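pipeline: protein-struct stage 2 | run 1193 | protein-glutamate methylesterase
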Amino acid sequence: MRLVLAHTYPLRRTRRAAAMTKGRGVDLLGVAADLTELYTAAEHLVPETVLLSEDMTTVPEFEVMRALFSALNISCVLLRERPANGDNPMSRGLPVVSPVDDPDRFISHVRQAAATKVGRMPGKAAAPTAKATTRPQVVRPAVRGQVFRDKSLIMVGASTGGVDALISVLGAFPKDCPPTLVVQHTGGKFAASLIRLLAGRCAAQVVAAEDGAVPDRGHIYLMPDGDAHLALAAGASPRMTRDTAPAVGGHRPAIDVLFRSGRPFAAHVAAAILTGMGRDGAAGMLELSRAGATTIAQDEATSIVYGMPRVAWEIGAAGKRLPVDRIGHALLAACTALPAGSR
């Protein structure tokens, strides 16, 4: 079993690594002290299994890790060294092992747990803020021969559960899709990793947004860090800008900032708000909608956390509520030019 170990605490990390090397049938490829080191190890060493301390799953960056594991078919096993403290949607569905003194017995437990491959985050059919059903696995290709209107723009915002949702939505886009601006609540250190991950799953080019650049067809833009908001500068034509205003609702980049910046171009904008906790993006989407944009919220059944899209729907910001596997096509349809003589 080719394995990478990740643990927050140095002494425990050393102890676990020593136990793994004493056991039979394990090739310990590397040891990571944090998620940044783990992402690099998983991306370059491509282990069969990752064993990581459960506390590492409580930060937003773990969502990017989980999507990477799924993309590379890496098993993820959690090491639980203390009782679980409530439900964590980021680690939901992952196999768990507890430490035992005998190395061979512990490795056997890890091997058995690793037989469960990590997949998309399953939902929870309980509290209204976290209800979901099985997420769609297949994205239908975009309609061939679509012709998109000049000046059309797409905006997408997401938070908890959003990486999988973005893969579903953006994976439906053709390589000549309308320029698309995306805000995903992810720690700044993992923004570049998210761009690389999406780039490997999308036909369009996924790149870092550059200050002053004009959004171009066939490109999907995200902020490369958490130092500024992604926004459009006011003017005759849209240009991206790094808005260095303070965090909004604890987020930078914030979805509300992106959506509000699109108001001058709303007649050409199609916007979607995906799964996520809180209400970021709902108020901005309402302003976009009132200015003439097409607006869509992800439905409750396919949301990992039905927070942001719920607020957007309840305040009347979203004109449609759709399952995640239909949102990409709906955004493209809103930007598609009507055939001659159909008006």
